[in-house]
Structure formats: structure tokens, C-alpha cells
Records
---
Amino acid sequence: MKFSESTDSSTVTELFRGSPEVPLTSDRNVQLFDTTLRDGEQAPGVSLTPAEKADIARALDRANVDVIEAGSACTGAGERETIRRVTDLGLDAKVTSFARGVQNDIDLALDCDVDGVTIVVPASDRHVETKVGTTKDDVVAKSQELVAYAKDHGLWVELLGEDGSRADLDFLERLAEAGFEAGADRSCFADTVGHTSPEHTYEAVSRLAALGPTSTHTHDDLGLAMTNVYASLAAGADMVHGTINGIGERAGNVALEEVAIALHHCYDMETAKLDELYDLAQLVARSTGVDLAPNKAVVGQNAFTHESGIHTDGTLKDDSMYEPYPPETVGRERRLVLGKHAGRAGVKAALEEHDVHVDDDELSAVVDRVKALGDRGKRVTDADLLTIAEEVQGRERERRVELKDLTAASGGGTPTASVRLLVDGEERVASGTGSGPVDASVEAVRAALGASANAQLESYHVDAITGGTDAMVTVEVEMSRGDRTVTVAASDSDITRASVVAMVDALDRLLAADPTSPVADD
């Protein structure tokens, strides 16, 4: 369906060829309104517990997000309990509730002790007439009544016309003006179904912003959520609704971490504590079960990862050669990975990280074997690289830790496991319990190695590499000890054994880098 609204050609020129109506400069005060706990939770399959919502709210507050929409008080008693849990945290951020255009929703929000509400009323003809079955005059009158009621009860109030991007602009302007007359703190332009263009967004927000403080709420169904945020800000909006990682209904909302870094990098505008963004994104991904795409801007695994020989060589010479901003800006670290595109500089740098030094001939041999592994579709882990170097240099590695035996059971009660390790030539046996056989086995390994060999499991990833009942799996782990990190992969038909073999090998590599460190069994 094409737009029925006309777009003034001068708007197109103004947005894309000339200066915006409201310049994007460092002295602009743009605020972030996070709706991860409300709109984000409406993504299919996402359901957050009260504890998870509280944890995310704390993380949002640490990132200096201005407004946190904690949920919809009208949803039910459980949701209200969750909202109260957030309001009881004593956050610096303003905590709000979503409220439909009925007084009871505002009363329920007040019972949750929120700071404010976003009152959502129909704006487009299809919502006014088909969904709600009312008239535009009634929507305006009811909106004024609700805004006045909420303000009389001490709430911060935002009035949002649902499906605003498909609404008649004269009516949208009339609705916002009525809201401001009744005392609303701001209006909000809502592209509820991700339908509109940046030109139309610019025109609509320009008209609303002329009346008072205006927010923008964009969805990504056309891949234009971020562009429409820019158009909104250029038109005078001063608050952006969004979610962490861009989760939300259908194609999701604009990703707040992308808004924050883009405004910082391109316009020197500060909207959030940027070095909190990665941890926040990871927390939301774990809590929602919605994994981050590797190529996701800002927080994806590949955002600061380099494999290409040309890129790696350039990055080693100049950190900013192939990156728009330093990874530390958003709480990340740069990673050089090896594969079919690896070059000499990258392989040499990776070896030196593990205190392995090679001459030119040895380096050439290692690079050839790394590329051969990559050509077979295999990601080259740290353990692979070190093994290749050992073979090229004719070195025999003395293992400090070796798995000799593993037994794990999970049926009929608490999962248990026992391991037999050879540690610096001494046999050690230990057992452990856990939430599953893998967890129990890891606890058994930790018990056998003791506190001085403690290492952190940074990541754990499983891939099925064959089908059928005897399917092989590959477990890849990343572990760190002190300032050293190592990545190891192991394959087996038993996921528990593959996990333990990978972790033990990683621990062995980490301990081998510090030969003076004893492996305690206390």
C-alpha cells in the first residue's frame, strides 16, 4: 500500500541536502526513553521475570537512561508487582507505565508508584473508527480529560497517538495541541507499524515539535527505524523511544545502543554512559533468550573482530584503521581471529599474545596451515594455533592438566559427576553436583584443581555438526585467567565430555602460560 499522504519536495531537500531545522550539535539535550521492559517484552517468546526486569532496570540506570517504561500496569497483578519492584529500586531514571486511554489504567499505574505514564490513544482513522469504534472529537476530548487527571495526581505525562504515522497530520497536530493544553509534558510521534518514510516522519514531527516537547517511537519493519530517529531529531524531537538490542514486536524497535553511539560519534551528543552498553546488551540477550546477531552494530560479536589479513595488518598498525570508534567506548575489546583470510601480521600477533615467537620460515608454515584449516570451514581457535606452532617448531608440549576419566549422571535426582585428572604428574579425583551433567562435571574439575587454578568461563557455545541419533557436537569455550584469554573447541558425540575436554584443555593452556603457578588442591 502506498502512502496516501503527500510529501512536500522541500522537506526532502531540507532533510537530505540542507541543514536540518534543528541542528544536531553537542549542545542539544536529547533523552533516551527505554521500553525494553514493555514493548521489548512483547516480542514473540519473550517473558521476563520480576527479578530479570529489576536487573535490567538497574543496568539501564547505570547507563544513565533517562526514562524506563517498566511495563503496562493494566496487564495484570503480576505485571503490577514487577513494576512496583522497579519503582522500589530508587533509580535516578524516571520510571513510567504504559496506559491505554482509560482512567483505570492511570489508577493502576498510580498504585505502582510510578513517576509517570505514556497515555496511548488512537490516532489513525483505522484505529479511531475500526479498532476503538469512536470519533476523532471523542478521542480529543477523552485525551484532555485523561491528561488532566494524570497531572492532577502528580504524574509526568506523555500523550502518544497510536499509529500516528498513518494518521491525518492535521488531526495528529490537533491531538497534540489538546494534550499540551491539558497539561501534558510532551507528545510522541509513533510509527507503530514501522510504515513510514523519513520524509513523512520529518514533516509530522516538525508540526508536533512546534507545539511542545516531542518524542519519537520508531519500529524497524522497513529497516528505517534509525533513519526515522534521525529525521525526528532533525525536525525537533528531543526524546527517543527504543529498546536494548532493538527487540520488540515484529522486526523490533530502534536499538537504543545504536542511537546513543551514533549521536556520540557523529554529532558529539551525549545521551548515555556508553561503556555500559555492551554489558547491558548481554544482560538483555541472556534474559530474553534473543541472541545477538554476530554482525549486530555496537554489540554483535563481529563488531570489533578482524580476520582478513589486510584488515588485521592495518589494525595492528593503527587501531582506527578499520573501526569507526575504539571498542572500549562501548565496553568492548578488539579481537583478532584466524581463518582462511588470515595474514602473516595477524598470525604473528596472535602467537605473540601467547608468548610464542617464530622466525620467518616458521611463520610462513604456520600461516599456510591456518589457512588450510580455514579452507575446510573451521574457525581456528587459540588451541589450534598453538598446536600448529608446536608441530612446526618440533616442540613437545608438556601438559599440566589432562583429563583421564569422566563419569556423569543426571537421572533420578541431582546431577552428579566425577573426574580423574592428571595434574603436574599427580592424579586427582573429585566429584561435583550441578543443575545438569555439564554443570556438575565443571564443578568436579574445579574441585580437583583448587582455587589457585581458578579461571573464568567467558563464553560457551555448542554446534551440532552431524545429524542423526549419533550426532557429533562441537563445544567451543573461551576462558580467562588474569589477563590471558584462550579459546578451545572439542568435538564428541557426548556434549558433557566435549564440554569438559574443551574446558580442561583451556585450563591447561592458561596454566602452561604461567609455569611458576602451582595448581593447588585446597
---
Amino acid sequence: MNLFVFLALSVFVGGVSLLAAYQQVSGPSKSIKLDYSVFRSFALRDFLFFLACVMPVAVFFGVWGITTVNIPYQDDIDAILKSTSAIAEGTGSLREFWSALSKQDDERRIVVVRLVACLMYWVTGSIDFRLLALAGICSYLVFLKIVFAWFRSQRNLPLALFLPVPYVLFSNFNYEALYWSIIPLQQIAVYIWGFASIWLVSKNTRWSLIWGAGLGILALYSDVSGVFIGPVVALILLARREWLAASLWMLLFGVITTFYFRGLTVPDFRPTTAQNLSSWREMLLMAVAMPGMITDVMLEKSDATRLAFSAIAGMASLSLVGGCAFLLARKLLRAPGTITPNQWWLAGCVLFLLATFFALAFGRAAFGAQTILLSRYKHIFTFWATFNYLLLLQLPVFRRIFSRRMIILQMCAVIYFGSSYFQTWADMMYFRKTIQIDAYGWTKNREFPSAPIYISVKESVDSIFENALKNRIYQFPDLPFEDLRLAEIRGSSDIAVRTATYIQVGTEAPALQCSPDDGIYLIIHSGDEIHMLPMRLRRNSFLCFLRTGRYYAGYCESMAMLRQYLSKNKKYKLTLGIISGSNRYLLTTGKEVSTS
């Protein structure tokens, strides 16, 4: 992360967004109008508003486009590549085609992501996992459009208050979900299709109900979380006393849900109900902390500290939701006709997310509460924070406060946005290298350093890759460190080696640039046998970054690799490979590991 580029971009994005917020709250009388014959007359405040909304989206997609890789990672292999290969080889009948699409993946069916992969294969002749992820990530734009439409339809709400939403929504705290190709169309899009379904049903017309049902089915066949759309919408229809629509909806989703779960079994690696219930303290902590996870921005703190802060914020969030639920229930009893479609949408989306929170807490409690700290779940909590913000805007006191303090509100959103990229860049680059190293490991030694479970499923995974490569359904891209072992030696480095079940090395990192391919690699080699592992680099604090211009801190550790991947009765030399901009060189260590 180049100091000048980061600061210049931050100043530009922050400056424009704050100026846009100022222009919005200054009133039409103070806004500047520009007159051009080509574009006619337009207000500068409108142009700045548009630019301020677009910038976080552009940064988000720009960073993702520059850093993403066309490599399947773990679940992508058997969940996507295997099914696409089977369909490419010929399914024979529609029933066999559906069987390949709907085959169980973990405890769910992921028909949508597999169908998109197949369509991509039929159109282009191969799978590009970047495009597969992009298709899911673009669903963010659908959600942004719905939220914008919600603001446009609020007569007593300044449109300026929409400005913070893109900066929160397009932050980077959930980077892992963006680079793991299966997740965007599965675990991100399922929520957005669900929100869109509730939005349409809330419009209370025949066609909106039909289209809402279609999006609900799309959500269900994206991921198992979509099953909650059925009861949530049914409750909305029953509360509005639309008995016929509610009956038809329950019948439709009852049949589809039954069909969806038919033949599904809980995998052995998932904890049992008894195991989860025995971890009730963890379950309770997860249930309280998840609504407050938007405050989990201190990623360097311990898990206990992060969970404690999130739990405190979660109690405040649940109090807000409880208070709004009470007001809605009172209005429902006294004057149900005064509840607007926007309020029904908010209530339905909040209920949908609460259901998924409960399911996640109940189903993952045995794994520990720290599970919810994983990057790939962060988008769920971003959605929740957005709805909490909209709930606050329903309350006159907060609407007045936010309108009067728009500059401060927008400043917080910009800081949150910029902080997400600064804090996650090192971990995001390490995750990117992990995906690349798996590809390198399989092509060179038939191994996946990041997934010890690969040893037990080696035969299956190898056949999936072999068939895909043979039929040119997928081809590995060139890797930036492919020939790093042939670079010149420019010195030595002192390292600390740990060898037990795993091999892991620690060392002081030399000065590095921060482009996506820059990094340090541990090279374990003996003759023609070569293994390569990325080093996890830590970031400096922001003040240290400003003072020194160095993003990465000094000490780093390699990925831990199972000793079982090494041949028996062999000695391996340990060398460090460095990529920093155009500089590519090696550092000897004088250390060896053996498997005798």
C-alpha cells in the first residue's frame, strides 16, 4: 500500500464526500449552479451527490478487479468445478441435469451458483472463477438501488442522509467472501434476493407478489438461508390480513421447501444439536454479539475483546429493534392501514436477518463464538447495520440529529470505509496468496497447503482437477512466483523454524512494497522437489504508517504446512523468496528440515 496513493485517494474521496454532504445540508439557496450548453443547467450539489455515491462503489470494484484471481479455493472445487464438469461431459436427461445442479453441498443446495457456472461454460467454453464471483458481487448494486428507492419514497427524509450508506456497504471488512468464488452468489446474493423479494411483496400488488415469489425461490436455491423468506413474507401477509395471498404463499413455499430439503442430511463434520445445546453460553454470546458486529473494527485485538465490544453494541441494537417492533405492533393494532410499504419492508428484512442470526448461533455454537469474527460473515452484519440506520431514521429525534450533524455522520462513514481497506489489506493479500499457493502446490506436488483435509479427499479432488484440465473446462493461470526460485541470491536471513506436526518459519521482513504480488515466500526445496508457502505480513499502525511510509511491520510467519507433504528420508533446504515491485531475489537461511 503506497503511502502517497493511499493518502491522495483518501483525501480525494473524503473531500468530495464531505463537500457533497455540506452542499446537501446547505440548502438550495446556497447551492452552486453551473450552466453548460451541452449539459444544460445543473446544480453542483447534485453532481457532487452523484459523485460521492459512485466513488466508494468504484473503489470497491476497482480494488477487487485488480487483486482477484481465477483460481478455485477449497469448496469451489467440489461444489462448482465437479458439477460443471459432470454437466459438460453430458447429463443425458433433464432429470440428471437437475440432479447435478441440486446435489447436496454441505447441508444445502446451491443451484444458482452452479447454474451460472454452467451458463458461463456454455457461452465461453470454460469457467472463470473471477466472473462467477463478480456476478454475485454485482448483487450489491441491487441492494443499493433498493435502499436509494426507499429514501426517495420517504417524503419527510432528506435524500442527503443516503450518503453514508454506500461507504458502509462497499467497505472491505468481508474481503474473504469476495475472493472465495462460491460465496458471492451463495452467501451474499441470498440476502439481497431475499430483501428484494420482501420489497416487492411490500408493494401490495398482484404482479409484485408474483415477482417477489420468484425472487424468494431464487434466494432459497442460492443458499439454505433463503428458506426463511417463506415464513417472513407469510407473517407480513397475515399481519396485513391478506388471507388469500398468505395462503397461496404458504402453499407455494411449503411445497418448494419440502422439495428443497428432501434427501438432505447433516454432514458428519457439523456439530450435533446436543453438542450445540451443551455450548449454550457460546450460543447466547453469538446471538447477542452478531447484531453489534458492525463495531468489530479493531481487528488486531483479541477475540475476547472484539466479542465483548460487539456484545455491548449488540444489546443496544437489539434494544432499538425491540423498541421499533413495539411501535409497529401498537400501530398494527390501532391503525394497520397507516403502516407504509417501506415500514413493512424494514420489518421483514430485520426479521429475516434475525432468523439467520439465530440459525447461525444455533448451528455453530459448538465451534465457539469466535466463528462470527470470520471475514466471510461480515456482509451479513453490514446489511444489519444498514437496516438499523434506516430504523433510526424512522424516529423523529434521530432524524433531526442526523440532519443537523450530516457532516459528522458522513465523516464517520468515510473513516469507516477507508479504515476497512487499510486494516484488511495485509490479510487480504495473504488470503490471495493462499489461494495462489494452493494452485501452485497442486500443479507441482499434488498438495493443498492451506487444507490438511485434502489428504483424506485427495483421490476425489485430484480426479476433479484432472477431468477439468483434460476437457479444458478450467485452466490454471500463470502465477507471479512461478520462477522465483531461479532469482539471484542477495544475502541471507536469520529464521526461527518450528517443526512438529507442521512446518512453520518466522523471520524479520525486509522492506516491501504493497502491490498485490509483492510478498515473502518460504521455499522448501530438495533437488527437483519444491514447496512454496506465503509469509503472513502484519501491518503497522496508522500513525507508524504515516511516520515511516511503511505499511508492513517487521516480523512475519509462514503458512503452516503438514510435514506429511514432504517425502520421507529427505533433507530440505529453507530459502526465502522476495518480491517487491520489480525486485525479485532470494535470501539463504542456512537452515534445513528433514523427515527421517
---
Amino acid sequence: MSLTLSTEQIRGLCTSEVFDRAVNYREDDHIVRIDRFGDTVTAAVQGSQPEPYDVEIEPEGSGSDAITATCTCPYDWGGYCKHIIAILLELSEGDIDLEDERTIVEDLLADAHSEELREFLLNECERDADLRRRLLTRFEEQDTQSFYDYKKEMSQQYRGPYTYQYEGPDFSEFHDLAETHRKQGNPLEAATIYRAMTEVRIENMDMVQDYYADDFEAELDAFVECIHEADLSREEKREYIEYLFERWASDDAGVETFSGQYEEALWELCADETELAYWRELLEAELPDEIPERGGIDDETGLLETTGHYRAKWLIETYADLLDTLDDTDALREIYERYYLDNRSFCLRYARLLAEEGDEERAIEIAEEGLDAFSQIADIRRFLADVYADRSPERHKTQLRELFLQTGNWEYYEELRSKCADNEWEALVADFEADFEESNVHQLTQLYIREKHIEEAFETVIETARGDVDDALRRQMRDNGLAILSEYRDDVAEYDPETYYEVYEGLLEPFLADTTGRKHYQTVIDYLKEMRELGFEEEFEEFVERLKEKHSNRPAFLDEMKSLENA
């Protein structure tokens, strides 16, 4: 086993801010303990809370530098947290020799008298209910409880001083118990445990600050896997289809939060046509007679009025998916015909179905209606462009033009250019130019580059880079013009490299002074590397020395500058 990574490897597992804090944590003796058991390292690191955070690290496969690590802290940003990084640094750089406690335990067990071991386990089971239950499950196969007993025990973990946690309590003991039952060939007991976990998580959502769906989804997936493993009869399996359907179709606000996960579970559970047909039968009883109008904003509450609009659409969309999967084209066509102007997806799917059946005139009619009925219509336009390709070249080009303007996708631009004569194309380019001048400087620049108008592209980039740095959007994006210089340097800088270099230099100095932090300094270094590639070596060296002198009170910046010197 090797968890000894290089400092650079460890740095790559976290953000620069986390790395710096981890270094401080290690130097300030926040590490309480480090233990090793087999291939797993466990540790405790004192954080901001009274109780230390628990860290667990293990390698991913033999001989691999990759690791898997967890920490009980609430950190949820990029990379690993400072507690994990502090332990990795101690393993890598600290003067420690961790003895494998597994070997010690194995030696003790080999020498222990059976009666002493029995007495020890009895005493531990008396004070530790979790150990007692796992022991019973492992050796007796009789430790089963009712669904409501499991829920009660799980719910108790939300009570007391640990309410309003980030992720809620740790259900690992119940996961272990469920997996033990699966290994013993009792998947339905495991399914009961997983079902209890999913319901308890929903019922206690208000007890946690930041509820994550990953655990819920994994537990619901395990529930479905257990039902499959049970190899039930068709009638026995219907009970579980009904359960998932009731949860999926529930109008309870908490359960509705996970309607997507329950739907995925239904698709997984219904493994054949007969089971899908049973789901269809259940759903038909819930289908609305019509889709209600969308509600507006309530003047008193300021909230969106609930009319059932979205729920009705969602039920009908799922029904259509079932019909499609069951290949019931007649019923599917009826649904599409009734609702195609209420649902953009239905409009497109109906048009495609009609086209496949040879009724292109009606398909075009449906799609053209969709252009007027919906706001997001790129996929409908793409369908019309394909249909018009052999029927009407002018309409085909019109759809490609609108697709390009609407999506900014240059594939439509290239496709349209291949369909146009030179004079026609020149007129279109002029139209695009006028449109982009008002709306999108990047599209305008790329248009100039593609049309080989490098002077116009260069002037657009320089003008934009020198633009008003007080612009609200650019302030929000922390962009003072360097981003566009960087993006188009390879395309346009050669037109006038001296001016390009001068603009880089004029923007980079205030950008550097704007804020601090290693990530910011690393961005500055990237820009400096780009400037150096423009030539002007003497001017560049003078500029670098000026920056180092002016910001000599920033040791982190000077440290990052070493990467520029070594590049």
C-alpha cells in the first residue's frame, strides 16, 4: 500500500486556497491522530468545531497513485478539503512510521482465549446496539425488523443536538446491515431497509441545511436492485411497482422533490412489456382531462400560483414515453394530436412521426405552427431544414440562416455557405455583421476571422479590450479585456503584434493589482506567457521586473513568478 504522494500530486487534488490552509493546519498541530488498518488510513483533524473531523483515505487499486478520501466536514467545493490534504501532507512529508494495526489485531486474536474473546464481545454488544445487530445479522440471519421499526430508529438520528446538519446523519450502519442481508440471500429485508432510508430522508428534509440527493438516489437504486434480486413472481412484483408509482405520482411537496428519481426507479423496475403495461394502466387513472393554464404571480404572496399545469404536463409526457416504449403508435398519435401545441417536445415528436409515416405536408404544418407557439425552437427549425432540403432550397436556406442566428452554431453557417452563390453569400455576411455589431462581439470577431477579414477582426478585439472596464457584466466576470485578447491572440495578433503587446501590457498591470491569491497570480502568469510569445523580449523583461518590484510585498506572487522563469 502507498498513500505517499508527492507535494505536487497533493497540490493537484485541491484548490490553491485549500492547499495553503492545509499547510497551516499541519504546521499548527491540528492533526489529532493518524492510524493505519490494512490499506486504510484513518485520522482525526481538529477543525472549527469542538469535535475533530474524521478523515479516511485509501488507495484506488494496488500500485496506483489515485486515492479515495472522505471527511466528515461539510466542505463541498472543488477538490478535497483542507483536513484530507493536511493528512496527505503529513504522510508525505512528516517523520512518521505508521504501524499496521490490522497486523496487531490479527496477532491478538490468534493468541486470545476463546472465553476471553466471548466475554469481550458480550460486553461490547451490551453497550453498542449497532455492533450487536451486525453480529446477529452476520451469524444468525434472524435479525429482521418491521419497516416502521427501521424508520423509527433512523428518524431518531435526526433528533437531539445534531439537527440542522449539512447532510444529515450517517446511515452507514444501516447500509452495512442491508448489504449483509443481501449477501445472506435475503434481498427483500435489504429492500425494506433501503426503502426506510429513502422515506426518512424525505420526511426529515427540514432538519438539514443542505440536502444532497446523491445518497437518496443511491439508496433508491439499491432498493430496486434488491427487488430484482428477489426474483419475484409477476403478481408479487406489482406491489413494488405500485409503491414506486404512488411515490412518483404523489403531490406531497417533499416527495415531489424526488419525482425524477422515482421515475428512473420505475423504468429500472419495469423490466418487460407486461410490467410497463401495468405502469401504463396505473398512470391512465391519473391522467388529467386537460392541461390547466399556467398560474401567474399572486399579488399578496408574490409566489407563483399553483394550477397543476406543470404536473399535468409531466404526467402526460411520461404517458407518451410509455406509449412510445410499448410501440403503441395509434395511442401515441392521439396524444400528440391533442397536445402538440401545449408541449414543444410533442410538437417535434409528432412532426417526426408524421414524416416517418410519409405525411410530410402535415408534418411541415405541425412544425411551422410550433415556430409560432414556442420560444425555444431550434430543434423544430432543424427538423424543417431537413424536410425542406429536397422540397424547397430557399426555405431550407431560410431555416439554416435562422438556426445560425438563433444558436450561434457555426455548423449552420458552414452548411448555409455551401448552399449559396457568391453574391448571395456576400449579402448574408453583411446581414450577419450588422446583427452581431448590435448583439455579440465574439460572433462578430469569429465572423471576420472566418471570412478572412483579419483587419476588421483585429480592430474589433482591440476596441473591445480597451472598452469601458466599469461595464457591469465585465465587472461580474472579472474581465478587464484580457480575456478577449487571450482568446483571439493566435488568430489576429500577427496583423499588428506591437499594438497587441501594448494593449496586453496596459491591461495586465491593473488586473494584477485588482486582487490577491495564488489562483489570481497563476492567471496573471498565463497572460504573461502569452505576451512573451508575441516577441518584444526586451520590453517584456523590463515589464516583468517592474511587476516584481512593484509587488515585492506579495510573496505568493513572487513564488508563482518562478514558474514563468522556469518555463
